[in-house]
Amino acid sequence: MNWTRAQLKSNAKLMVKKNWIQCVIVSLVLMLVTGTSGSGLNLNYNYNGMDAFDPSVENFANTFSSQMGGWVYYAQRFVPVLAGLVGVIALIAVLAHFFLGNPLLVGGSRFYLHNIHSQGLLDDLAFAFQNMYGNVVKVMLLREVYIFLWSMLLVIPGIIKGYAWRMVPYLLADNPELTTREALDLSAQMMDGEKMNAFVLDLSFILWDILSAATLGIAGILWVNPYEDATNAELYTALKAKGRSYYEG
Questions:
Q1: pLDDT recorded at residue 163
Q2: Cα 52 from chain centroid?
Q3: How many other CB atoms sit within 10 Å of the CB of residue 181?
Q4: Nearest to 17 by CA among 223, 239, 237, 215
Q5: Distance CA 3, CA 5 (A)
């Protein structure tokens, strides 16, 4: 099926408008589970009375040495603890991404596919948790591992593979029983000759993304993110016939 950016985006707008509140909720959930968070550490310096202001160079040196010795002592004790805490948080984030974020991404894809022809429901978000959860986690995990390995060669091959396997979440939303090889091959067939077009489609949202950044994400939550998610679902639907012919052949 031939498609144009204008056609996909026009259909996506209509799709979001007819079910706007639920689209906002689903896209917000997807954004939150794939987001990042950070923490800061405030350091407070303490000085011992008038010693810090002693005009004597020797006393100043002794005071400075004492203060630094205290910092070294605390660093030796707390830096390993802090490093361990950061490692634990990073591990939890990675596990949450693979076992929570990716299944939710598949569920969000199913929501937007349902929303094309009828009306997506918030229950669609839980689809992968109720249907072949282990297989969905495995396929999505291996997809990301393969993209990472291709990226290790050079950045460009990784980007190309990312576009080639772009449709995997939608394929799993349609059929969670697909094996990793089937999902990757089907997606690659669907994106054959379409990767540059999809890249240009992504670029066409750049002004919307700037608007989202300028409004501190408010425009993104209320419109831009659902609009982009709906457009991607429309792209999958437009390319679905290519994947079906490959699978059946």
A1: 96
A2: 50
A3: 10
A4: 223
A5: 7
The answer to whether 228 and 205 have CB atoms below 8 angstroms apart is yes
Distances in Å between the alpha carbon of 185 and those of 7, 48, 57, 71, 168?
26, 69, 74, 57, 9
Write down the pLDDT at residue 84. 82
70: its two tokens = 């205290």
pTM of the model: 0.79
Q: Helix 133-153 vs helix 155-164: angle between axes, to the nearest 10 degrees?
A: 150
Measure the N-to-C terminal CA separation of the chain; round to a whole number of Å: 18
Exposed/middle/buried for residue 28 (C-beta within 10 Å: 0-12, 13-18, 19+): middle
User: Cα–Cα distance between 119 and 18 in angstroms, integer?
Assistant: 8
pLDDT digits (tens, 9 = 90+) for 83-139: 788 888 989 988 999 999 999 999 999 999 999 988 899 999 999 999 999 999 999
